[in-house]
Amino acid sequence: MHFTPGHEHIHEPPETGGLDARAKIVAWLGLAMAGVLTPRGQWAVLGVYGACWLLLCLALAAPLLKVLRRLLAASPFFLLLAVLLPFRPLGPQDHAIAFGPLTLSAAGSEQALDMAAKASLSVACVAALAATESLAGITRGMQRMGAPALFVTLMNFTFRYLLVLREETLRMKRARDARAFGGRWLWHARVVGLMIGSLFLRSIERAERVQQAMASRGYSGGAFSVSSRSLSGAEWLLIASSLMLFVAVRLLPL
Predict the structure, then answer these.
(1) How far apart are CA 230 and CA 232, in angstroms?
(2) For residue 137, what are the β-bridge partners?
(3) 7 bridge partner residues
(4) Which residues pair with 84 in a beta bridge?
């Protein structure tokens, strides 16, 4: 276990067998893209991709319980969209499904299941990548793969600035609780509103201070990496075997 400089309280995931982050990025995001591009209704293909996800988790020693907790935390966002699709108006070639007092669209129900399955697979791949590689490793890998420098920089700064806002929020909450704040009645909403406004102003002020400090140190908007290691044979094997497996599953008649 190691720590990110400047954020000593953040526990970073350990290196997975010394594998380069680029190999893991290609493997996980390749699986996510393969799932998203699967035509609707090919449930066997999506099931095999789910088995591929489990196989990759075992091969890369991903903490399954941690990944599943993150998947459950993100699932309400896409399930809320999927649950509305069965209630869409019936199309000319659509037929209704009686579900108690409700009438559901058959095409909408199939689309909802398809969206839920693909979104679950994509989120699970991203969660597994985050669980097997540190943010610094992911951004370095993306930079060396030719990702836009602005995107990599924004990804780094967004994560670190969210941690700053979290610390500021906890500090304000401790100060509020020290003043015997109950927070159980409607009129206490004014205090919460003032806290949100104060946090907004403090975040702008903190961002300006950080930007001035970086500019005074010669920051020009780019991220630099001192690593120049080439991919090993095992890493190339992981990339090639993963992509070939995903393509084979897509092409085989399942």
Answers:
(1) 6
(2) none
(3) 4
(4) none
Element spanning 15, H or E: none
Identity at 59, one-letter amino acid code: A
The pTM (predicted TM-score) of the whole model is: 0.73
Residue 92: is it exposed, middle or buried by C-beta count within 10 angstroms (0-12/13-18/19+)?
Answer: exposed
How many other C-beta atoms can be found within 10 angstroms of the C-beta atom of residue 219? Answer: 11
Q: Which residue has the tokens 């994509």?
A: 122
Residue 222 to residue 152: CA distance in whole angstroms? 9
CB atoms within 10 A of CB 11: 12
For residue 148, the Cα-to-chain-centroid distance in whole angstroms is 18
**What is the Cα–Cα distance from 104 to 85, expressed in whole angstroms?**
9
Give the whole-angstrom CA distance, residue 149 versus residue 136: 14
In the prediction, which pLDDT does 128 show?
Answer: 92
* Cα angle, residue 106 at apex, residues 100 and 111 outer, rounded to 5°: 120
Q: Is the C-alpha dihedral spanning 32, 37, 42, 48 positive or negative?
A: negative
* Domain layout of the chain by residue ranges: 3-146+226-251, 149-216
- Report the pLDDT value the prediction gives residue 10, as an integer from 0 to 100: 47
User: DSSP secondary-structure letter at 220?
Assistant: -
From CA 14, how far away is CA 61, in angstroms rounded?
10
| Average predicted confidence (pLDDT) for the chain | 79
Alpha-carbon torsion 101, 105, 108, 113, what sign?
positive
Poorest-pLDDT segment among 6-15, 39-48, 83-92, 151-160: 6-15
| Best CA proximity match to 121, nearest among 62, 54, 61, 22 | 54
